[in-house]
């Protein structure tokens, strides 16, 4: 195959934060509901926060990581993870209890 692939990755530590929280779970927290009431219903009494339907939306809390990229031939597609680990080692990013997580793979002409 002709062409190249641009691989974007990040180095993740096991201690990094990576939580997925649903809005339903968030609105069950009394402190969050109180903060919403204080911000949007200040001065009103007997206010309740209700949802129209079940909320399936989620958001993520995660540690901000720098993204690194490198370019390889399309023929090396099967070895992208290994090559990303090698690139991280060459840049001295790979440490104990760390691993490489692929973020994006793009075809470059």
Question: Any overview of this molecule?
Answer:
It is a single chain. By secondary structure, the protein is an alpha+beta fold. It folds into two domains: 1-16 and 64-109; 18-62, no CATH class. Helices cover 25% and strands 34% of the residues. The strands form two sheets. The protein has a three-stranded antiparallel beta sheet with strand order 4-1-5. It has a two-stranded antiparallel ribbon with strand order 2-3. It starts with a strand and ends with a strand. The mean pLDDT is 89.
Which stretches are poorly predicted, pLDDT < 50 over at least 5 residues? none
Average pLDDT confidence is: 89
Count of discrete domains: 2
Could you give the distance between the termini?
11 Å
Structural class: alpha+beta
**Beta fraction of the residues?**
25-35%
Count of alpha and pi helical runs = 3
Largest sheet composition: 3 strands, antiparallel
Number of strands: 5
Order of helices and strands: EEHHEEHE
Overall shape: it is elongated
**Which strands sit side by side, in order, in the main sheet?**
4-1-5
Radius of gyration: 22 Å
């Amino acid at each position: 195959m002709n062409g190249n692939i641009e691989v974007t990755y990040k180095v993740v530590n096991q201690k990094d934060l990576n939580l997925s929280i649903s809005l339903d779970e968030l609105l069950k927290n009394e402190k969050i509901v109180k903060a919403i009431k204080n911000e949007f219903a200040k001065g009103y009494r007997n206010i309740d926060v209700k949802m129209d339907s079940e909320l399936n939306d989620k958001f993520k809390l995660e540690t901000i990581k720098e993204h690194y990229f490198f370019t390889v031939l399309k023929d090396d597609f099967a070895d992208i993870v290994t090559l990303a680990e090698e690139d991280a080692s060459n840049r001295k990013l790979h440490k104990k209890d760390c691993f490489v997580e692929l973020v994006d793979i793009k075809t470059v002409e």
